[in-house]
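ok trying this again, last paste got cut off
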Amino acid sequence: MKAIEKEHGKNFRLTLTTNGVLVDDDAIEWTNRACHNVVLSPDGRKEIHDRFRVDYAGKSSRERIVPRFQKFVESRNGKCYCMRGTYRGLRRTDRQKTPRKSSVVTALTPAAS
């Protein structure tokens, strides 16, 4: 990619957005090397998040992503990141089946100087 930037006189700034389910040490390392910014995006409260983001065995993913997000933030060493929470609710008449987005909240954390 650096060759393409140089050839065209451009500076690409990549951003990775993740819900954290597939984040591992390799993903953190690559992102910190290649991306200007990372967006960490849980799906709200634990009970809502786990309703939509279970693992392949049907187990909670929220318990696993929180420590991964914390590790990701620590590894950024002051580089840009933000937390973006998608908060969902369920319709009262059909709480078992129908997701409803109620709002999207974004909290930006500036890089430490």
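PB: full thing came through this time. The chain has one domain: 2-88+95-109.
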